[in-house]
UniProtKB/TrEMBL annotation:
The chain crosses the membrane at residues 21-42, 54-74, 108-128, 140-165, 177-199, 219-242. Keywords: Membrane, Transmembrane, Transmembrane helix. The keyword Protein biosynthesis does not apply. InterPro entries: Nod_factor_ABC_transporter. This is ABC transporter. It comes from Natrinema longum.
Length: 258
């Protein structure tokens, strides 16, 4: 068995054990997002009657994307913080694969789990509302992966800040409200500026794919290239800044101080 394959199996096995050990936290997060959606849906029906129907598809897709982005963001930020608190983050530097490779494998696992949770919530919301959307996984999954990559990059940035400045939980929570605004931005902002906003351009493409039935290959090459470039750019920048924060934390000798 090759070393990279052993690393992949070891990281996935560890993440599955952690997921099983802290399953209640995952369930409560999923329940919390569903509860917010139920309050918006049933509250909107009570106040606005049938007028909410015109915006219901947008609300469902928005919550679907919000859960995927939040789960990916918190998984990255929290897992790195846990490694630091357990005193194992420095040990990752001693890995023959390098910390970048190890964190990359963990990020892949986190993205897979985030997408699985989001698709589960999407099913619950469609059953609750009785709506039907186009859920073509060949189109939805690649678009969703590209859309949440900026959230992963932001998660790396926040993890780096947490290592250096320790207690910044309030900033972590406030960013969630920022995600809501970025996901809803295509409804208020149009044009090339969407490409430069994290989550927003991907949110626009997902809306078109799930409401209009647009397939992946029916988007223009320019749109797909812009989405990939923007998403990978945010991920790379977030990871590079994380690396700088880690180096600064190590030089100060405060890696394990909490």
């Amino acid at each position: 068995m090759s070393g990279h394959r052993r690393l992949l199996i070891a990281v996935f096995e560890k993440q599955l054990i952690l997921l099983k050990r802290y399953w209640l936290n995952t369930v409560l997060m999923l329940f919390g997002v569903y509860l917010m959606f139920a309050m918006v849906f049933f509250g909107g029906q009570t106040v606005g009657g049938n007028s909410i129907d015109s915006a219901l598809d947008t609300v469902v897709i928005g919550f679907f994307l919000f859960l995927a982005a939040s789960a990916a963001y918190f998984d990255v930020a929290r897992s790195i913080m846990q490694e630091a608190q357990w005193g194992t983050l420095e040990q990752l530097y001693m890995s023959p694969f390098g910390i970048g490779h190890v964190l990359g494998v963990k990020t892949v696992f986190n993205i897979v789990v985030s997408i699985g949770l989001a698709i589960g919530l999407l099913g619950l919301m469609l059953v609750t509302t009785g709506r039907s959307l186009t859920v073509d996984l060949v189109t939805i999954v690649p678009l969703l992966v590209m859309t949440i990559l900026p959230a992963v990059g932001i998660g790396y940035f926040i993890a780096g800040l947490s290592l250096l400045y320790k207690r910044i939980e309030n900033v972590q929570q406030l960013l969630q409200f920022g995600f809501v605004g970025l996901i809803a931005a295509p409804g208020a902002v149009q044009g090339p500026i969407l490409v430069f906003l994290p989550l927003s351009f991907g949110s626009d493409l997902l809306m078109r794919a799930m409401t209009d039935g647009t397939r992946l290959w029916e988007f223009s090459l320019l749109e797909l290239t812009a989405l990939v470039g923007s998403s990978v750019g945010y991920l790379v920048v977030g990871y590079v800044i994380f690396g700088r924060f880690v180096e600064r934390t190590r030089k100060r000798g405060i890696m394990g101080h909490y």
